Amino acid sequence: MAQNENTNQQPVSELLQIRRDKLALLQEAGRDPFKITVYDRTHATNKVVEDFDNLEGKTVSVAGRVMAKRGMGKMLFWDLADRDGKIQIVIRKDVIGEELFPEIKKYDIGDIIGAEGEVFKTQTGEVSVRANSITLLSKSLQILPEKFHGLVDTDTRYRQRYIDLIMNDEVKDTFLKRSKIISAIRSYLNERDFLEVETPMLVSNAGGAAARPFETHFNALGEDFKLRISLELYLKRLIVGGLERVYEIGRVFRNEGLDTRHNPEFTLMELYQAYTDYHGMMDLTEDLYRHVAQTVLGTTTITYNGVEMDLSKPFERITMVDAVKKYAGVDFNEINTLEEARAIADKHHVEYEDRHKKGDILSLFFEEFAEEHLIQPTFVMDHPIEISPLTKKKPENPDYVERFEFFMNGWEMANAYSELNDPIDQRERFKAQEELLSLGDEEANTTDEDFMYALELGMPPTGGIGFGIDRMCMLMTDSAAIRDVLLFPTMKPLDK
Questions:
Q1: How open is the CA angle 190-281-308, to the nearest 5 degrees?
Q2: What's the number of CA atoms in the CB half-sphere (13 Å) around residue 213?
Q3: Among 120, 163, 339, 370, which residue has the fewest nearby CB atoms (within 10 Å)?
Q4: Residue ranges of the chain assigned to CATH 3.30.930.10
């Protein structure tokens, strides 16, 4: 069994002092590890293991953190971990030398070392490096959690992610996959002539979504600003400017609660494409999800919490009205007035507010009865106009708009429109939003005059979509909570 200081009965304070004393001795001997600036590493640990047939008998140098120590006497066996894996380092006294071996033997679990030596397999078949030199690159002055119990307290894991990454390989794998997911999205869009751009995070008008913004004050200008809640309005300005296909992957901020699927700052990807509509956005979404899953996971079947979701089949497409009819047994095509909508809501115990109109109540029915059933990839289309202030009306039924939300696992994964490019209609929608704001809806939009000016210059027919990157990562890494895919999630202060 690997040895670790936590198995010792000495108080932690004494163990920490022993490490500092070891460092002091090294510094006195002129071997201060913190003065080393470069180490010539030739291979990552996993590459040595994977390419053993070509590397056997050859000299390599690897570097990483000592995670376990075994052996005694004249031979030591250490597990060395880097970002990509781990490998066993075999240290023999007769190879390292009589003078250095006692010093190396005192190195601790957690120390970061470089090891140069010959690649070979032990009698048990484990690919290893027989070290001819060991270089201490950083002395660990703290004690890692006991290896065989690991770091299991979730609060500590989120607050001290660096320890979580050291101790839990599956956590490291999650974030490596997250990086690959974002890279696959970029690659897909760049190959299709989309231009990646950056837009402001500090804005005077935080529009583009139904959310309450964080507010701050810019001292130099003496003005109040908000952190963006969406990427939409600036990206549409770029469509007006003629860039035609744009996207941005960036942080947005919403002053809302914390739960398994919400964090006040999260990663959003929005794209806008001129001369297409929400049907074009559905096709792109379907193709993009398949591409990312195949690229990152090697399959188009996603398994989350034991449930398989198949991306290879055509995604289901259903209107919001039909979804409510299917799962709640209520047909809003037969409901003509607000009074009728309220009556049916009362009958089904769906809570609503005085400001809610028929379309709002339809949306509440959908959330209450339909969302949880949408496990397989599903596009829910044609939302009521009341909840879609930036979306084109359906020409044949102006009470509804050309919008869809993409669902998997009962979660909203994306939101898309045929973008409203009629400036007269858009101003009326903003006016309706401001009326809601005056009635106490803190998530309502306000009129953005600069955006209105841009629309009045003329925006081509455009399809747009917003993807929740964190939820995509949750599904594709089988992670239970959004905090599991954020390196440093928002946490309540320890003193509260």
A1: 95
A2: 22
A3: 339
A4: 167-315+376-485
CA distance 262 to 482: 7
What is the spatial distance between Cα 43 and Cα 316, in angstroms, rounded to a whole number?
Answer: 47
Q: Which of 343, 382, 390, 389 is nearest to 366 (CA)?
A: 382
Q: 167-315+376-485 in CATH: which number?
A: 3.30.930.10
CB pairs under 8 A, 24+ apart, for 90-97? 90/117, 90/122, 90/128, 90/129, 90/130, 90/131, 91/131, 91/134, 92/130, 92/131, 95/130, 95/131, 95/132, 96/131, 96/132, 96/133, 96/134
1 has pLDDT over 80: no
pLDDT band at 362 (very low <50, low <70, confident <90, very high): very high
The answer for 407, left when phi > 0, alpha when psi is -120 to 50, beta otherwise, is: beta
Distance CA 474, CA 480 (A): 7
Specify the residue for token string 């250490």.
78
Task: Report the candidate in 472, 480, 417 with the shortest Cα–Cα distance to residue 289.
Answer: 472
Give the tokens for residue 246: 């744009």
The pLDDT tens digits for 75-128 are 999 999 999 999 999 999 999 999 999 999 999 999 999 999 999 999 999 999
With a pLDDT cut of 90, the percent of the chain lying above it is 85
**238-242, 429-433, 461-465: least confidently modelled range:** 429-433
Amino acid sitting at position 64: G
pLDDT tens string 62-76: 999 999 999 878 999
Structure tokens that stand for 464 in this block: 């747009």
Reduce the DSSP state of residue 354 to 3 states and report it: coil
Per CATH, the homologous superfamily of domain 5-146 is Nucleic acid-binding proteins (2.40.50.140)
- The DSSP secondary structure of 443-479, one letter per residue, reads T-----HHHHHHHHH----EEEEEEEHHHHHHHHHT-
Ranges for all domains in the chain classified under CATH 2.40.50.140 = 5-146
Q: Is the pLDDT of residue 56 over 90?
A: yes
The helix or strand, by DSSP H or E, that contains position 326, with its residue range, turns out to be: helix 320-328
